[in-house]
Amino acid sequence: MPSVLNRYATPLLTGIFLVSLVSGIALFFHWNPTWFHAMHEWLSLLLILPFALHLWKNWRPLRCYLRRPAFAIAMLASLAAALLFVLPLGGLTGSAGTAGQGGRPAQFAVAGLMIEGTVDSVAAVLGETPDQLMQALEGSGIVAGDPHQSLSDLAAASGIDERRLYAVLAAQAR
Questions:
Q1: Transmembrane region positions (predicted)?
Q2: Percent of the chain surpassing pLDDT 90
Q3: Is 16 in contact with 50 (CB distance < 8 Å)?
């Protein structure tokens, strides 16, 4: 096992970190987020394993860092930076109006409001009649009996998840 650690811990950590770095930059600049979102999430989770191997391999030298004030300062600075995105301070969380939503982009907040709307109100936004939207919903397996019910309630009652509901709405918006 020690030879495996010596051989792969740091190269794996470096390789997956570089992929996470590139995908994070792509997400920041909104370059094809469809490609990079899942890649960034999953490989960032996978980064835990080589990080743990790297810590194990280099535990003795790392213990020296733990005793130094620079380590504590760096950890506190990292925590403070993370808190800027968690606390409802606004400004750093992306688009205006997202404060208090954990940095969630405004378009997701609007999409959430859309599916909480009734068939009547959402049909008006999409430039359709409620009957047209109800037909589209029923065509995708969502029982749309009451146009005064929220779309999310209709989807939940039909056993349909929100992603499928969003797909129906996106198709109607074209």
A1: 12-30, 42-59, 71-91
A2: 20
A3: yes
The amino acid occupying position 101 is Q
In the block, residue with structure tokens 């792969």: 8
Cα 1 from Cα 64, distance rounded (Å): 24
**Amino acid letter for position 54:** H
Contact 154, 137 (CB under 8 A): yes
**Secondary structure of residue 118 in the 3-state scheme:** strand
- 3-state secondary structure (DSSP) of residue 120: helix
Q: What is the pTM of this model?
A: 0.48
Neighbours of 93 (CB within 10 A): 22
Coil/strand/helix, residue 71: helix
Quote the Cα angle for 1-71-92, to 5°: 105
On whether the CB atoms of residues 161 and 151 are closer than 8 A, the answer is no
pLDDT in tens, 78-103: 999 888 877 765 545 444 444 445 55
Going by C-beta distance under 8 Å and a sequence separation of 6 or more, which residues neighbour residue 90? 96, 98, 99
CA distances 63 to 8, 13, 57, 60, 162, Å, are 21, 19, 12, 5, 47
